[in-house]
Structure formats: C-alpha cells, structure tokens
Amino acid sequence: MATLLILIFVLACVWQLSGILLKLSPLFWKLFLKIAPSQASTDVDKLRKQQAEVLRIRKEMTTTSSQDEFAKWAKLRREHDKRVAELEKLSEEVASQRQKFNQVVSSCRWLIFSLAAAFIQLWYRKEPVFWLPRDLLPNYIEWGLAFPQAPRGSVSVNVWSTCAAVVTGYVSKWIEAKTTRPIPAQPAAGTAK
Q1: 154: helix, coil or strand?
Q2: How far are the Cα atoms of 55, 96, 186 from residue 89, in angstroms, in the given order?
Q3: Confidence band (pLDDT; 50, 70, 90) for 52?
Q4: Sequence-ordered list of residues with C-beta below 8 angstroms from that of 150, at least 6 positions apart, any chain
Q5: What ranges do the domains of the chain cover?
Q6: pLDDT value at position 89?
Q7: Would 128 disulfide with which of 5, 154, 162, 188, CB 3.0-4.6 Å?
Q8: Which of the residues are on side Lumenal (predicted)?
Q9: Helix, strand, or coil here: 138?
C-alpha cells in the first residue's frame, strides 16, 4: 500500500517536472538538431548562412553611396530584397518544423504519462492506497473516496492519483510564481527620484 501511495505521488511529481523541462524546449530543439541529421538541421544551417549573407549585403549597402554609385547600390538592393524574401520563407519553414517538434515532444510526454497512470489505475483499482480511521467520515464520503472498486473505508487509486496531481500542480504553480520575479519598471528619463 505504501509503495502504491509513493508510486502515484512520484508519477505526479515527474509529470510536473517534465512540464517544467518542456519550457526548456529551445535546448531540446538545439540538441535535436545536433544529434539527429534531418531536413530541419539542414534548413537551420541554411538559415544561419542566409542571415549572415543578408547582414553582409546590408553592411555593403550602407557603405555604398546611393547617389554616387547608384548602379552598384541598386544591384545590392535587388540582391538584398531577394535574399530577405528567401530568408523569410526559410524562417517560416524552420518555425513550422520547430512547432512540429514541440508537438511531438508534448504528445509523447502526454502519452507516456497517461498510459502509465491508466495502467496503474486499472491494475490496482481494487487495492486500497491507505485506510481511513473507522467512522471518521459519513458513509457516502467513504464511498466516494473508495470509488470505483476499492473497499469501503479506504482511498482508491483513482482518488489518490487525482489528489496527487492537483497538489503537485498547485505546488508547481506556487514554486513558479516564487521563482519568476517581475522585472521592475524603469523610471522614465528625466524624472526625479
């Protein structure tokens, strides 16, 4: 019984931790690009090269006078516009691939934890997680805590997993609120303190 209680609580905690780790998805995306050779990694390489090329052309355009060397400046301008259009298209493709990656990771997370929770709830549906003291609560509340198939007077796996998920969710939100501090507003220029 105690192992079941701890197992369900650990599962709920790991679910919340994996949610926090998903907020680090840019790290996972970079790791994915380095580890798995794919269309996404080649597109990201092209995007970086394209960005460098656009910056080079833009720098060259700023050093060229549009009045004195108009032909050279116009040629650079056309090339710059063409490269920027290609860059935008490539950037949209990479963003789409990144969104697909995030969806796959989130779906896998949900599927793994949902299957694990469903298996535990199905396998241990008749097992009590822990027993309540006799005559502590009214009969209908004991029935609700034992729902669906645990013995009356105990807490079922379904109820305990729901409680553990809610509590870990609240604790996670509380920790997140305490660790993320709002950035104080800067006073406007010229105002006296």
Answers
A1: strand
A2: 17, 11, 37
A3: very high
A4: 125, 126, 127, 128, 129, 156, 157
A5: 2-170
A6: 93
A7: 154
A8: 1-4
A9: coil
Do 125 and 134 meet the contact criterion of CB atoms below 8 Å apart? Answer: no
User: Are 121 and 161 spatial neighbours (Cβ–Cβ below 8 Å)?
Assistant: yes
Q: And the tokens for 87?
A: 């860059």
Residue 102 backbone phi and psi in degrees, to 5: -60, -40
Contacts of 76 (CB under 8 A, 6+ apart): 57, 60, 61, 64
- Check if the beta carbon of residue 154 is closer than 8 Å to that of residue 145: yes
Please check the confidence at residue 25 and state whether its pLDDT lies above 80: no
pTM, entire model? 0.69
Q: Match 């970079």 to its residue by tokens.
A: 30
Check if the beta carbon of residue 113 is closer than 8 Å to that of residue 11.
yes
Task: Specify which residues 131 forms β-bridges with.
Answer: 154
Q: Are 22 and 150 in contact (CB under 8 A)?
A: no
